[in-house]
Specification:
9 helices; two-component regulatory system; 7 strands; globular; five-stranded parallel β-sheet; two-stranded antiparallel sheet; alpha/beta
Length: 239
């Protein structure tokens, strides 16, 4: 009899980021996406209908702070684990995530290997807790100590199968356009340069960020959504 899949809910208002999480989560054996919410209110409403094993939760939601949503989950849905995925890198937010009982905290822009290894570690932790009724101190120490090593960063050369929605020729065009400039640019700038739609360019840029070919910085203005600017990372050549 096969193991019951680990069910996942994504709480992320950025549609492209949510698609990336869904694509790579689906590549992991034993995981199943069962819902996606774009606001905190929507997530709470869904949680009264479906109960995922783990929540992939952003901090910057349109209607509430993800930390507040984490507290609500802990108050009303204690059996759900939470992995924070966010651009928030201030110490206070990280501290509150720890206090709120988050399993892990991934800072955007995410790397494929970090994202996938975190979910794999989570699955391993669940298996160990389900296989025993009692546990000794050594095993407890291992559960409370996350893996110290960082896996090698995955590049486009090691991604043998492109995710759905990423075309090889279009990816090459976006990559070539990024290499032509030494300045950071937002998705609108590159869309005009490449003659493509904003949504298409944004999807490809986020994919290049996920494989560490492009870096991204988030700039916060006084009003409106934060602006994301992308910069090409010069690739090292083998000697």
């Amino acid at each position: 009899m096969s193991e019951k899949p680990i069910t996942v809910m994504i709480v992320e208002d950025d549609e492209i980021a949510a698609r990336i999480y869904e694509q790579f989560t689906s590549k992991l054996e034993g995981f199943q996406i069962i819902a996606t919410a774009t606001t905190g209110k929507q997530a709470l409403e869904m949680l009264h209908v479906v109960t995922p094993d783990v929540l992939l939760l952003d901090i910057y939601l349109p209607d509430m702070n993800g930390i507040d949503l984490l507290r609500e989950v802990r108050k009303h849905f204690r059996g759900i684990d939470v992995v924070m995925i966010t651009a928030a890198n201030d110490v206070e937010t990280v501290r509150e995530a720890i206090r709120g009982g988050a399993y892990s905290y991934i800072i955007k822009p995410i790397m494929i290997d970090k994202f996938m290894s975190t979910l794999e570690q989570y699955a391993n932790t669940r298996r160990q807790l389900q296989q025993h009724t009692t546990i000794d101190q050594t095993a407890v120490d291992k559960l409370f100590t996350k893996a110290a090593h960082t896996p090698a960063t995955k590049t486009v050369e090691t991604v043998t199968t492109l995710p759905k929605g990423i075309d090889k020729l279009t990816l090459k065009l976006i990559r070539d356009k990024m290499q032509e400039t030494t300045q950071s640019m937002n998705a609108d700038d590159l869309a005009a340069l490449a003659g493509m739609s904003h949504s298409t360019v944004r999807r490809y840029l986020e994919f290049l960020v996920s494989i560490n070919e492009v870096t991204v910085e988030t700039f916060y203005g006084t009003v409106g959504r934060p602006e994301r600017k992308y910069r090409w990372v010069p690739q090292k050549t083998a000697k």
